[in-house]
What does this fold into?
Amino acid sequence: MAAKQDISRVITSIRRTLDVSISNRAMRAIGREAVVIIKRRTRLGYGVVGGLFGNRQSLRTMKPHTPQYQEYRRRHRRELFHETSPRKQNLTFTGELLNSLKVKRTRKNRALLGFPKKRHKKSGELLTKIAQKQHDAGRTFMFLTKKETNQLLKFYRNNFGDLLKKRKIV
It folds into this structure.
């Protein structure tokens, strides 16, 4: 009987700790860090390959631009975002799509990343539609690899601490 009570107290403590630790504030911070990771990787010209969500295992270079589009980018070099070049396939022409990526909503154990419901300044197309077209064209960028997921876990532990250890439960 005493062992059952001790275990139930530990389980109750763990549940309370987890409820406290993954607050909306923490999820918003994790979501912002995920946005930074996605932007950095995409601007370097890498997308994600694999299964769904956490099962996406590997990075790959983005699908190359067509020669015609590369020529278009070369001719309009002055309009290019400062972190790109005509031949670089990093989803960045003006920088508007990636710069508008943000945390849309948070809940206790979730952070929803996305684009605001606004139109691209140059084309007039909704940003969400542009992102969907890129995904359909084989330029998948809105997911995280296993390594990036572990990076977020490390970020969480560094910034919010491991509450189970702090409270001497585990």
